[in-house]
Amino acid sequence: MAGFDDLASERSKAQFDVEEMKVIWAGSRHTLEVSDRISRLVANDPVFRKDTRTMLSRKDLFKNTLRKAAHAWKRIIELRLSEEEAAELRFYVDEPAFMDLHWGMFIPTIKGQGTEEQQQKWLPLAYKMKIIGCYAQTELGHGSNVQGLETTATFDPQTDEFIIHSPTLTSSKWWPGGLGKVSTHAVVYGRLIIDSKDYGVNGFIVQLRSLDDHLPLPGITIGDIGMKFGSGAYNTMDNGVLRFDHVRIPRDQMLMRVSQVTREGKLVQSNVPWQLVYGTMVYVRQKIVSDASCALSRAVCIATRYSAVRRQFGLQSNGIETQVIDYKTQQSRLFPLLASAYAFRFVGEWLKWLYMDVNQRLQASDFSTLPEAHACTAGLKSLTTSATADGIEECRKLCGGHGYLCSSGLPELFAVYIPACTYEGDNIVLLLQVARFLIKTVSQLGSGKEPVGTTVYMGRVEQLMQCHCAVQKAEDWLKPSVILEAFEARSMRMSVASAQNLAKFDNQEEGFLELSADLVQAAVAHCQLIVVSKFIEKLQQDIPGKGVKGQLEALCNIYALFILHKHLGDFLSTGCITPKQASLANAQLRSLYSQVRPNAIALVDAFNYTDHYLSSVLGRYDGNVYPKLYEEAWKDPLNDSVVPDGYQEYIQPILKQQLRNARL
Ligand SMILES: CCCCCCCCCC/C=C\CCCCCCC/C=C/C(=O)SCCNC(=O)CCNC(=O)[C@H](O)C(C)(C)COP(=O)(O)OP(=O)(O)OC[C@H]1O[C@@H](n2cnc3c(N)ncnc32)[C@H](O)[C@@H]1OP(=O)(O)O
Ligand SMILES: Cc1cc2nc3c(=O)[nH]c(=O)nc-3n(C[C@H](O)[C@H](O)[C@H](O)COP(=O)(O)OP(=O)(O)OC[C@H]3O[C@@H](n4cnc5c(N)ncnc54)[C@H](O)[C@@H]3O)c2cc1C
Which part of the chain is the Acyl-CoA oxidase C-terminal domain (predicted)? Predict the structure, then answer.
């Protein structure tokens, strides 16, 4: 049978130890064991089935999500799962829900922005889920511009309370996940007003619904904002609208780690930077980078397996058509995405470390690495989510017509994923943050302040502005030092050119706006350098397992040379490489594709995804695509009856009309 034989034969061709690659992908043997065990637990639990999700009405879909979330919580308690295991369970349940915001934003916000006493009061309630919280920052009129929020929190010294109010329609909270129908509490961001003076945006813990009957508390108007893109997809989430009509909360419900309001109504600043009010966004952006590798690898796994099963044209001597994965065009679209999935995995791992490091420093009142952490999380969030959203759509096209069927798993994956380009910061707005950071770094060169972290290379500005790429033959592009220098020189030269152009403006802010499209490109170049350099660093570690390191080297080179090829204009116009070297890079890329080809199926097997998680007929582990596609079609509710509902009202009259016309 096609499919079965194809994938079995592909697996037998693998030139590396797949089990060891699974460990590399998971991060450690322990993580692989946990993820493997929990993925199977979820796959074998009938409550977590997801095959009808795209066909349910919004109400049924939402109720089904509530049922799954309640069941997940029950299993977490019954099985006494650790935090790591619970997070894996949530991952494999694979359905956005209010729990994500409760655990992923509400709790981290209290931890990051609450005082010790506030944490002691609220965290036990939140951990036991006696309250359910969300993160209510964005408003109808303001999302990207956090300093433009309109919600007010006015201190009333008479009662020692804040009055939370929505003064305009545009100040209505709009978008927060979990808000619409579930959350009992929210961290609400609003302007702190004391004695008619505006002290800017701060976070406040506000109870929204009664803990007895779930009705909104007095002064609160709350609901869901309506259907979103795609069927199933993010519609499992109750993104909400919220308005306050002079709602009073006790003074101690303002999150007071950054600044405190005293009983007398005095604002006292602590020694932590005010930007910590934005801290939850840094945490979540870091998580989103790791998630990008999951979403992209999932799409790539589906497209790679299907490309080995699907055959078109080119009859071989045995009378069988060619596997579409053997077409060079298919490889040149698919393999860079496979390489990107691995690249994002490793940069995500590094970013997690960076976040832990900055957090430890913050605890010890060392705030020096915060700007770097902000720039890296913002930039990499932007880079990886944009590439992943585009990559999922490319995988759909790589699967031809069948990729457009919901049973391929790709339409829903795309619909669930694409808001990641917008939430936690619009991707362009975030790149502009990186650009500001780069311009600042360039402007400080030569001032005695050495660039640190991911901008260390800028300390070699003179060398990088003048260096010439040493490539003379295609294989030279396999040297990590050659690749790194080309990427560093490109990024350096784009940042310096932007800084020089900016310097021509009398008003820097005006100049920044005028040059923003170029600045974004400079930011992209810097972020791509980070991804490439972290992949190269990963390869410098001890990597056990037969052939594993060789495969990763090939993927690393594919990622770098693919980016070079895609952004050739940058590399050529900045004089980092010559047209001849560009064409050698392209030749090397082709040869790398041939090297990866026999290993492609094994490289996606290394993600260790269950069929339940993939939820794709095209990406099945056994490759049994056609019989299952055929079987799936018959499950569609339209096929419940042979003659469709509406035949007599709408089809029959047309047919009869045609009959009369024909007789005329
Ligand atoms: C069943 C049980 C299961 C149990 C387990 C479950 C586990 C689940 C876990 C799930 C975990 C996580 C998943 C979470 C779910 C994700 C879903 C996502 C939902 C979406 C949520 C949201 O979207 S929330 C809203 C996000 N909003 C934004 O991102 C807004 C973007 N805008 C901004 O950030 C700012 O407005 C902007 C930075 C653009 C501008 O700021 P502004 O103050 O106006 O001006 P600047 O001058 O540019 O900046 C001033 C200085 O501050 C620096 N800076 C800016 N931002 C930061 C920052 N974040 N950190 C540090 N520093 C920052 C900036 O660089 C300037 O510095 P300078 O030195 O003065 O130059
Ligand atoms: C699915 C989903 C879930 C969400 N969950 C939450 C949540 O739980 N809690 C919460 O508080 N929020 C949430 N949000 C809101 C989200 O954070 C915002 O939508 C996001 O920050 C973008 O802001 P915006 O919608 O105001 O976009 P806008 O800023 O209005 O963007 C519109 C366009 O303007 C451009 N633009 C904006 N500013 C600039 C600039 N300075 N320079 C150049 N171009 C610019 C953008 O690039 C974009 O093209 C969610 C959003 C979505 C889609």
Answer: 480-656
